Input
Amino acid sequence: MPDWLYDTGNGWVFLLVTVIIGGTAAFLSGRAIAQTWRPYWHIPLYMVPIAAAVRFFHYALFHEPMISLQNYVVDFAVVLAAASLGYRMLRARQMAQQYHWLYRRTGLLGWRKVS
Output
């Protein structure tokens, strides 16, 4: 992991804590937001505390800096991407199932109008 991107430089810790643990929590949160038919703009708001929790896990488990804007931004970007993926996957399924006379699925993340 390059220092200009994530200043601790430990790729395995980043993969474990940020991508696997934080990404899973964010993915499930994105699905939960979509399940309750909330709009997408809720996703970034919910990811702020999840990214802070990921930052705390880095600090508590691996003695990395707690207050690091650079690392927090990277953690936030990863959890935002995971939450967006979970949201979009479930929303595509919802639209195709709930409004089957109007929409058909087009792949994993999309839907289109029935002509």
